């Protein structure tokens, strides 16, 4: 028989139904209600965990989905990770219109190595897709500001949540051990006006052997929305020295002013930290990111998913005070040797000097 995954709470209706549980498929279209009445403004918690997986391939990316109850709109207001860096290299939580497959788990490395195993993206190929949350290096719980939440469910394009876990090392699973890494989602049914969004800035590119490289990206905000930034997170692999994010705005004299949103050593816990400047981001502003990567290897290192590769990411959490969040979810560049802030066609100038030594 199918097993429904609910929430035993005296305050709220059920939030989520597992698309596929540990044991079997869940009957579609059937949503069990909690027998208790909903209390306006109350908060529940839902455990979204890997279904006791036992990965056997190093650097494997695994995904598992849950379907949001389509009859109600929910607001996710906090993320409490259930993972350690000894097991999971990093985790991402995607909001999807449809999952990449209907399987209980699947290989979902976007840049996965060639294997005989069937692969699919976290979200369906033509579906809504955005990253809501990211975790690495034993990061702690994240609570959103009061009155702010990620909208999912009935009145949102996010109909499914997909958890992605990167298992860099699998030695601990050779004896058949299993894993339930994941995140507890704090949520409320109380309607929230301040809707949260996450914008991911990143690069492609390569780092030459025995060289320190700046990996940069920048995008203009073209939508007529006012963004209130409140948290940021950085991510690289082992060679990252510093990651910094900026809001770029031209003053009345046409000079670009760079306001730092956050800067951090990426080898510290990769949690979301408070931004260093909460001034609104407006249409016409640019958001820019730089990773300083020091390649100590006697070979080229490329951007990629494994420990033999590197990554360069800056996540910005923000909210809008009315209306919907940005349609733009990602801002990526080709990276070196093709893209730099200083390229003439970027339109960027007055670029600050940012090095690891300035941390």
UniProtKB/TrEMBL annotation:
List the keywords (alphabetical).
Copper, Disulfide bond, Glycoprotein, Membrane, Metal-binding, Monooxygenase, Oxidoreductase, Secreted, Signal, Transmembrane, Transmembrane helix
* Domain spans labelled Copper type II ascorbate-dependent monooxygenase C-terminal: 195-343
Mainly localized where? secreted
**Do the record's keywords include Glycoprotein?**
yes
Keyword Disulfide bond on entry? yes
The catalytic activity, as recorded, is: a [peptide]-C-terminal glycine + 2 L-ascorbate + O2 = a [peptide]-C-terminal (2S)-2-hydroxyglycine + 2 monodehydro-L-ascorbate radical + H2O
- Membrane-crossing residue ranges in chain numbering: 6-26
Name-wise, this protein is: peptidylglycine monooxygenase
| Lineage of the organism | Eukaryota, Metazoa, Ecdysozoa, Arthropoda, Hexapoda
């Amino acid at each position: 028989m199918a097993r429904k995954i609910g929430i035993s709470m005296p305050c709220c209706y059920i939030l989520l139904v597992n698309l596929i549980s540990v044991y079997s498929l869940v009957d579609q279209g059937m949503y069990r209600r909690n027998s208790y009445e909903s209390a306006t403004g109350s908060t529940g918690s839902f455990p979204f965990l890997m279904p006791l997986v036992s990965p056997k391939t190093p650097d494997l990316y695994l995904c598992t989905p849950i379907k949001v109850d389509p009859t109600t709109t929910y607001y996710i207001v906090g993320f409490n990770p259930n993972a350690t860096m000894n097991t999971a290299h990093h985790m991402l939580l995607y909001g999807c219109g449809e999952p990449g497959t209907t399987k209980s788990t699947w290989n979902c490395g976007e840049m996965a190595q060639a294997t005989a195993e069937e692969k699919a993206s976290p979200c369906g190929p033509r579906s809504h897709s955005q990253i809501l949350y990211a975790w690495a290096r034993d990061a702690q719980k994240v609570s959103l500001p009061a009155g702010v939440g990620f909208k999912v469910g009935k009145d949102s394009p996010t109909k499914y949540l997909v958890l992605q876990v990167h298992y860099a090392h699998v030695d601990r699973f050779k004896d058949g051990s299993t894993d339930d890494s994941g995140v507890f989602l704090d949520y409320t049914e109380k309607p929230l006006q301040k809707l949260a969004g996450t914008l991911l800035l990143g690069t492609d590119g390569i780092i030459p052997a025995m060289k320190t490289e700046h990996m940069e990206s920048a995008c203009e905000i073209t939508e007529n929305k006012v963004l209130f930034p409140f948290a940021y997170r950085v991510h690289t692999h082992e060679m990252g020295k510093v990651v910094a994010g900026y809001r770029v705005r031209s003053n009345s004299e046409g000079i670009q002013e760079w306001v730092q949103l956050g800067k951090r050593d990426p080898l510290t816990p990769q949690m979301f930290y408070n931004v260093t400047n909460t001034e609104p981001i407006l249409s016409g502003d640019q958001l820019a990111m730089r990773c300083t990567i020091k390649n100590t290897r006697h070979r080229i290192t490329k951007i990629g998913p494994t420990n033999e590769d590197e990554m360069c990411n800056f996540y910005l959490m923000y909210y809008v005070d009315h209306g919907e969040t940005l349609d733009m979810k990602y801002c990526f560049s080709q990276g070196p040797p093709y893209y730099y802030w200083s390229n003439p066609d970027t339109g960027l100038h007055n670029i600050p000097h940012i090095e690891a030594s300035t941390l």
